[in-house]
Description:
The complex is a heterodimer. By secondary structure, chain A is mainly α. Chain A contains twelve helices and no strands.
Amino acid sequence: MTAPSHSPTRYAGRWPSRIVLGLPAALALLLLVVPLAALLVQADWSRIPSDLATPTVLPALRLSLTTTSVTAVLCLLLGTPLAWFLARSDHPVTSWVRALLTVPLVLPPVVGGVALLLTWGRNGLLGQYLTPFGIQIPFTTVAVVLAETFVAMPYYVLAVEGAMRGLDPRLESVARTLGASDLRYLRTVGIPLVLPGIAGGLALAWARALGEFGATITFAGNFPGRTQTLPLLVYVELERDPQVAISISIMLLAVSVLVLGVLRGRWLR
Amino acid sequence: MSGGGGAGLDARIALTRGTTEVDVALTAEPGQVIGVLGPNGGGKTTTVLALAGVLRLDSGHVRVDGGLWADSTHHLEPEQRGVGLMLADSLLFPHLRALDNVAYGPRSRGVGRGAARARAHTELDRVGLADRAGAKPAELSSGQQARVALARALATDPALLLLDEPLSALDPDTRARTRSDLATRLAAYSGVTVLVTHDPLDALTLADHLVFVEDGRVTQTGTPSEVLREPRSAYVGTVVGLNLYAAQGDSRGHVRTLDGGRIVTTGPTEGAVWATIPPTAVSLHAHEPEGSPRNTWRMRIASVTMQGQSARIGLLGDVPLTAEVTLESVAALGLRVGAEVWAAVKATEVRTYPR
């Protein structure tokens, strides 16, 4: 009665097709893997501890951790409600908002940086109203956070919206007949059931924020201790002491792999 | 049936959802169980969701125990109504224990934690699950989940209990047991129950009054025994297992079906009538039978299905028929799809009643 099941060993094709397809496939794999391997091979592993203790690294590390954490919190506090509205609405405007959200995903980060400058700069769309109060956003730590949030928020919102759309809408109908307001439903049922999606979205957004370079250097500059995050430091050190740059890169690679491992096991397939 | 300001349910649900225009009237007294039956997509679930307040009415009204819940201008949200909702797949909150699922309603309505849990215990006990209070839904069988969902729906003392296909997700054994649990619990419930189902057994064993909804309209209402005796639509005929024909009185002693078939009956034959023939009253013969006044038709066999010790034979001819015969006749007469056969029905077995 059951449908014929697929054999566990899949048909791999005949020799000609293995060569015609296999060669480019192997090339694709090499193009991705060799640079990562190069990083590991070229590194002077014994120097990594002392490299990471270089006076410039610690402030950059601290700055990266603070700004990415603040970005993650902003995603959680602002992105979750946005995801909620997107998930519930069938209004045509919603699909436009969702399309708009994906723009920062594909936008060159430098362009994002320019856009942020035009928004928050001295004469920017919003910045012009802050200038009279002596508030200046560009080239400050706040600018780093804004740049990171700009690139990371879409990842978070789309991940959480997906999780929320996966909820059976009848659960809310039942909860409401039981007397729960929509806020109580959200707090007691909706959010607890999408926690894995929220955690996955946070990890994704945080990793994206940690790697942010183009928008940051354009909008926030490259000032040690204030706006110089780890990726920016890598860029600087590559000129001065490539081995330090490699050591930091390996640390960032390790963090990325760690995040990916956490995501893969539980939330991504 | 209750009037405008009386106790119980007085509703006319009129709204359009998708391509179905629903216009269904329901009335019930406290303690009554209304069975709503009909084909899928006919508007049953829409009716339930409108009663719950999840969907808004285009027109009509919902009054429960004299209070106005909704009409064309007025709409109480689900949380403002006193309504319990139980759906096919139970839909328990998967991250909460059975006890907290049942306590969710009282808690949402402002009852303190201790009192809500005590109430939840009582409700779980009433469905025989006091010992499973600490289990998560995934640790419960499907039948237990259904009983927890019922306890949860009743823990807020709703004036109106809505059961939408409450047993349809259960396997047959579990369904039979859960059906009797449900009957026991409903007997002790003083509000109005609206039970949506497509299972005739649910309707006949649980409901006091049946409402058939087809294509958004009520096609028949009545007590189960009234409906069993005199079905008034092709769907209802199928549900109660009778051959049903819309017919017109012909010469005396005859009616003519709308397809032109002629049926001999001892029942009344004036004007527009329904005619029913029980499948067990049909006898099949290899040759044309002779004798007392009866119907005999030359038929072709369209289907043969086994059902326990008997077989149901679908027959096509002047008067399409379903016959129920013994397995022996199937063998003796060589009944197979495509074969020709004579069907005979005594005139006294054909019941007619005004349409």
